[in-house]
Amino acid sequence: MIEVRDLEVRYGTRTVAKVPELDVAAGECVAIVGESGSGKSTTLMSLLGLLENAQVTGQITVCGVDVRNASPRELRAIRGARAALVMQSPQSALSPTTRLGSLMRAALKLHGRAATRAVMAAAVEAVMLDPAILRSYPHEVSGGQAQRFAIALAVALGAEVILADEPTSALDVTVQAEVVALLRRLRAERGLGLLLVSHDLALVSTIADRVLVMKEGDVVESGPAARVLSAPGHAYTRELLEATP
Amino acid sequence: MSVQTAPLRRTLPRVPDRFAAFGAVLIVLITLACLLAPWIAPYPDNEPRPLEGLLPPSSAHWFGTDMVGRDVFTQVLYGGRTSLAIAVVVLAASALAGVTLGMIAGYRGGWLRDVIMRVTDVFLAFPALLLAVSLAAVLGAGVTTVIVAIAVTWWPWYARLAASVAASVSTRPYVDAARCLGVSTPKIILRHVLPNSLTPVLVQVSMDAGGVILIAAALSYLGLGVLEPTAEWGLMVEQGQTLFTTNWWVVTFPGLAIMVTAFAFNMLGEGLRNALDPRRTVR
Amino acid sequence: MSRYLIRRLGQALLVVAGVIALTFVIMRLVPGDPAVAFAGPKASEEELAAARLRFGLDDSVPVQLWNYVRDLVTGDWGTSLHTGRPVRDDLMLAFPASLELVGAALVIAIVVGFPVGVLAARFKTKFPDFGVRVGSMLAVSIPVFWLALALQTVFASNLGWFPIAGEYDNALDTTSPLTLWTNITIVDALITGNWPIFTSTLQHLVLPALVVAAYPAGVIAQLTRATLIEESGQDHARLERAIGFKERTILTRFALRGALNPVLSLIALVFAYSIVNGFLVEAVFNWPGLGRYAAASIKSLDTPAIAGVTLLVAIVYVLANLVVDLLQGVVDPRVRAR
């Protein structure tokens, strides 16, 4: 679903991220870990062409579309409907003056899907939320609920892969586990691909199949999660693991 | 999106810097011109030459002469001195009074803060020009009246500003520490609250200067402000207004002077605000 | 929502009380004998004594303040020295004309300023944005009285496209008299189908309204642009982009509602500011509104009239802010929660 080769993201003369290889297959969960400033979020954002003012080089193929050379319309077609984004602070990611249901309806209509109450209710229930929540405004729901709604959006639009940028960092510890469990379940039930960016190694270990470790823009290690997280090859990965509570 | 040739697109932060710089340069030029008026003005201040009345702009009189023969360019320069002096005094006074009250209110909190905030509410309930006009009408025309009237109108903004800065500073850990150590309130205010207020106050002052000049000119236009023989731009417009159709230069140049000066201050203020505090919305 | 309403109403009432007190203080600041302020500079000794009695100037200050408030609330706003009529009546005649002017100006300002601001935000950092920023800054820097003179000279006196002064051709009072409903000439003319007066008023409105509209148009454009840019940079704009919405949709559908809020409150501020700016314009165009009344009152040091105008405008401003705050509660759900 996602195939990346020789990706480089630059702002002016500064190279912020350099990823030689990154693949996410259906039903697979790949995690990018590292400290803040390592370039992991930048990498994720560049996959859908969401970076402004950056120079992006390399080959990026998402759901069959060559992102770097796609027309704006082609890009907009895969955003949301094929590859969905889930962001870090769920409540600030949702338009404060728009009810959740309105946003979902608009997104469904945008991608030519049926925007019926049944469809929306099904999506919302799939993430264990009450359909009544569709009438609420973002500031009226909790962080966990807002994040689940963001995932529900992806489900409603029929996304095949979810790009999650630190989806749990802004949430309480108990809620974090719930959201991760939800992502795991969706992956199992629907064969969703998942690209997860996180600095929380413990969390990553519960869900990722493969892990990329980034430091200051470079990928220092990559491989199956089980191996990387238990017997790391690189010194930096060892440091990160030691720092994990 | 090629590899190396795409130039970095001009991003937003550069434009306000340009604005601020341009405004600053303009203001410096204007200030210098007005300060050096006694030396660079081609004619003495307020020297009527009855025989040379209402001459159009020429090489002898760059801006022409007014109805009593005074050189308009000279009058504009001297008028600038008046306007700038008024602006400086008004802003200094209102900033001083407002910031002092505001800092005390914001830091102390409690009923003192509520009272002071309600008082500023009342003052701010009057549109600026209205309060200034009423005061000036009541006190009688003159430079002091203009200064007092506008200063009374203006201090509440600074009180508000200082109060919000003081309130946020008062919750910071190092202030708590100082309090625990027994540092007196005035010292805390002076050493911690005041420096933090300086930047927003300065930004506000540069934004306000234009407004003060406009109001001072309006007061003089209404006959409530500066009086003869002091030169003032608004006064010049008032004196020449009936001559606009026949002798446009008498009114146009003072008016342009007001506009350019206010514009320069606005540019500077807006540029500063964008550079220093991009989140604040326009007042 | 109703709790918010009650809270705001209470605040507004408190401020109005303060406004009355402050006006009272200002009027007492007239240098010299206050009796002169109320009876006029040319009053005789008896008139002065009568004024002292009438205005209770021999009473203590708190009593005077109480009487003043009582009079105001019961509708006695004093008698104008230069018209001889009750100030309240003068105000009721003059205020609608000012409303007419400011109303027209605000319509122009919103119709021009808002779209221009949206345009600037849409084309951020490119030429239209730069043009709008410079243009709007010029608009707020122009001295109103000078602009009025300039437009009047160029378009009325020299080119003759528009009338020079007045609200409408007064000759029409005899040929096509106007029945009054709202006291706002153009509205009444429209309601009663009095086309001669309607068109005449419209013609007379153009220039003064354009002048008064300059400042608010500039401010509205600036604020619209600033808030839209800020909203578009927010996280939710990013998510909306990631969902696949077009930039234009993100701006108009999602960002705009968030931007509406500050723009609405700006309109209240600008409304009162424009009424006062309008004073200067009324002086130039001889418009029969509060400005002309105020200017005449100032010339004759007509204290009750000056006080009346000041109070009226301040109260209108407080009301305008109140209305806008309530509207904000409707438009932006976050405000209600506060």
Keywords:
heterotrimer; A: 245 residues; alpha/beta; six-stranded mixed sheet; four-stranded antiparallel sheet; 26% strand; C: 338 residues; mainly alpha; MetI-like fold; 79% helix; 0% strand
- Rg of chain A, rounded, reads 18 Å
Helix content of chain A: 25-40%
Mean pLDDT of chain A: 84
User: What is the arithmetic mean of pLDDT of chain C?
Assistant: 81
Largest sheet features of chain C: none
DSSP summary, beta strand count of chain A: 10
Rounded to the nearest angstrom, the radius of gyration of chain C is 24 Å
Strand order of the largest sheet of chain A: 6-7-8-3-9-10
Describe what this molecule looks like in 3D.
- Chain A has 245 residues and is an alpha/beta fold.
- Chain A has 9 helices and 10 strands.
- In chain A, the strands form 2 sheets. A 6-stranded mixed sheet of chain A has the order 6-7-8-3-9-10, with helices on both faces.
- In chain A, helix 6 links the parallel strand 7 and strand 8.
- Chain A is globular.
- Chain A starts with a strand and ends with a helix.
- Chain B has a single domain, classed as Orthogonal Bundle (MetI-like fold), CATH 1.10.3720.10.
- Chain B contains 10 helices and no strands.
- Chain B has 283 residues and is mainly alpha-helical.
- Chain C is an all-alpha fold and 338 residues long.
- Chain C has a domain of 207 residues: Orthogonal Bundle (MetI-like fold), CATH 1.10.3720.10.
- In chain C, helix 5 packs antiparallel against helix 6, helix 5 packs across helix 13 and helix 6 packs across helix 10.
- Chain C is globular.
- Chain C starts with a helix and ends with a helix.
- At the B-C interface, helix 4, helix 5, helix 8 and helix 10 of B face helix 1, helix 6, helix 7, helix 10 and helix 12 of C.
Describe what is shown at a glance.
The complex is a heterotrimer of chains A (245), B (283) and C (338). Chain B is mostly helical and 283 residues long.
List the helices and strands and how they pair.
The complex is a heterotrimer of chains A (245), B (283) and C (338).
Chain A: E1 2-11, E2 14-24, E3 29-33, H1 40-46, E4 55-62, E5 65-66, H2 72-78, E6 83-86, H3 100-110, H4 117-126, H5 143-156, E7 161-165, H6 173-190, E8 193-198, H7 201-205, E9 210-215, E10 218-224, H8 225-230, H9 235-243
Parallel strand pairs in A: 3-8, 3-9, 6-7, 7-8
Antiparallel strand pairs in A: 1-2, 1-4, 4-5, 9-10
Chain B: H1 14-35, H2 37-40, H3 72-108, H4 110-124, H5 128-139, H6 143-170, H7 173-180, H8 185-221, H9 233-240, H10 249-276
Helix pairs in contact in B: 1-3, 1-10, 3-4, 3-6, 3-8, 3-10, 4-6, 5-6, 6-8, 8-9, 8-10, 9-10
Chain C: H1 2-28, H2 34-39, H3 45-54, H4 61-74, H5 87-122, H6 127-141, H7 144-158, H8 172-175, H9 185-192, H10 195-233, H11 235-243, H12 247-285, H13 290-299, H14 303-331, H15 333-337
